Amino acid sequence: MKKTIMILLLVSQSFWAQTSSKKNYEVFSFITDVNNAEVYYNEFLQENSSDKLDKEQLSPFQAQLAADWLAAGSLEKYNYYKSLNPDFSAVHLLDLCNVLESWTDEDKNTALVEKISSDLLNEINKGTLSDGIGRTQILYEVNAVANARLGNIDLAMKNIEKSTSLDKDGLRDAKYFKDTKANYLNRYAVILSAAGQDQKAFDLLTKAVRDADSNPLLLETLKKLYAKVKGNSEGSSKYITDLQNEAYQNVYKKVEKEYIKTIKPMPKTIITDLNGKNTNLADYRGKILVIDFWATLCKPCVAAFSGFELVVDEYKNEPFQLFVIDLFETQETVKTFVTKKHITLDVLHDEASIAGDTYSIQTKGTPTKIVFDYDGNIRFDSSGYQGSTHREYYKLKSMVEIIKNKHQKK
Question: Binning pLDDT at 50, 70 and 90, where does residue 50 land?
């Protein structure tokens, strides 16, 4: 399943210019402001006679503008570009779903979420829209939540059950897209609560937190359910904290076994940041240093960032540094992605993959994080996304705390 998703995402990125025009989709894709992107698209049309442009050439522009205008909150512009009937690639469909998920989780634009998700589901079911990356079940999820909030409980229950039945390939447990299982459990709980089944929703999320299938949004829902089930919110913070501590301790015990006891000093590693300035990793001796290798096309890589952000915030006043190091891609590609996705982590850029070669990332794959102790020795070398924001947070926090504990015992 993971391999299929990656191939589809890679293929979907191959809509490059197919005309001799100076303006093309490659340049268009680097524009971060949707207003400027629309201007560029219109100039592209002016440079080319309409009879020389076919659907294959126009679709990438139109589909991306539809998704970006929806993200910007312009339903009118979204409807206009959608009415042109562009072919949506896997990435474009993913972008549309990301907007609907964001609105669902923020509890806003409920009626729009219901309508747009219904329209997309109808297209998928009719075969006029292709979904090869498991977005159908996500669309049923957000549609179910929207209907629950609109008071259509029976339809909400029907659609969340459809979403559940569609997970035949185990996408929710595949640890590929960010918080897939945590989001599903949270949305299911919201629907159960709307249906008057508060205790069942409470029990569902209690187990999720204990199992580390959680994120901050799920904790907020659990806190609200606690007040409903118990009659007041007194004790909710302690209840949730105790569940989180239990989950953290379980992760900590597993991470302890991954500690590298042999001395593995840091290789000489100099990498540039997104402004072209050299960063020498050796300069961070005296701190716990984390480097994480990623790529913009690697969905599990980016999914891990929310957990990293929690760790960075927790250790911001301690000798700690985390860098996420992009491999193989151009500086412009990475800068555009970082801007569009509002990434706040410290990003380094390794287009030639010199550091990637040094740490054998080609063999391990991305994401791979390597953690150094205060003396610059490698103590953890771990690949893969953990599946949820909190499990990712618990794992990296465990690595930091294990190094700190061993340092204090010297």
Answer: low
Q: Which of the four pLDDT bands, split at 50, 70 and 90, describes residue 19?
A: very low
From 194, 207, 122, select the one nearest 160 (Cα to Cα).
194
Q: What is the tally of structural domains in the chain?
A: 2
Based on the fold, state whether residues 185 and 63 are members of the same structural domain: yes
- Looking only at Cα atoms, what is the longest distance across the chain? 75
Report the residue count for the chain: 410
Q: Please state, in angstroms and rounded to a whole number, the distance separating the CA atoms of residues 390 and 294.
A: 19
In this prediction the pTM is: 0.92
Return the SS3 of 125.
helix
Judged by DSSP in three states, 127 sits in: coil
Is residue 49 very low, low, confident or very high in pLDDT (cuts 50, 70, 90)? confident
Helix (H, G, I), strand (E, B) or coil at 378: strand
Q: Identify whether residues 299 and 346 lie together within a single domain.
A: yes
Instruction: Give me the domain span that covers residue 155.
Output: 2-250
pLDDT interval class at 261 (50, 70, 90): very high
Q: Which of 322, 293, 312, 313 is nearest to 385 (CA)?
A: 293
Give the span between the Cα atoms of 211 and 185, in whole angstroms. Answer: 12
CATH number for 214: 1.25.40
Is there a single domain that holds both residue 241 and residue 358? no
CA 185 to chain CA centroid, nearest Å? 17
Per-residue pLDDT, 51? 65
8 and 130 fall within a common domain: yes
Give me 227's structure tokens: 């007040």
| Packed helices 236-256 and 216-230: angle between N→C axes, nearest 10 degrees | 140
Q: Are residues 189 and 84 in the same domain?
A: yes
- Of 352, 332, 334, 351, the C-alpha closest to 343 is 334
